[in-house]
Carboxypeptidase
Amino acid sequence: MAAARVLLPSYAALVILLLVLPSSAAAGGTADGSEEWGYVEVPAEAHMFWWLYRSPHRVDNGTAPWPTVLWLQGGPGGSGTGYGNFMEIGPLDADLKPRATTWLSKADLLFVDNPVGTGFSFVEGGNQRLMARTDAEAAGDLTALLIELYRHKTRLQGSPLYIVAESYGGKFAVTTALAALKAIRQGRLHAKLGGTA
């Protein structure tokens, strides 16, 4: 499985690393706000990496709220910020060239390296006990990430959240949707769940 995680060309991975490293202690992003990235602790000493793209096609007309798609990769252990972003639906392909068709034409995109230990997500000191052992634990970590993002990125609160996944990520999508609904009902997550796929 470890060999399958490294699919990006080395220069693309280097670009990602250069973007991430300066802001690993706090969220960072582009000057125009079209991209944001960072880490959320889920739980303490376990850090989940996220990357949010704001669509240049975003329409806020009040009648149809602009959606946000949370992309979850399969594997388990495939990097959403790597595979899903550069190999499938993000604005740039693996050669860092603009993609002819990107889901950004219809939604904002949130990629997450899930579960912790995948991609740029990590645990401090290599403490394996902090890594999710079950789908429910992974869903709890993802829900903690969503709670934190929706607390600080209030523009997300008006967008319906669609959790979309491929392969084993489909299990993460369902368990995360259930955990997110519970957190929404409890008032801990200020989001509107639009659906899962």
Notes: The first helix runs from residue 10 to 20. The radius of gyration is 16 Å. The beta strands are 28-29, 35-41, 46-53, 68-72, 108-112, 122-123, 160-165, 192-196. The chain has four helices and eight strands.
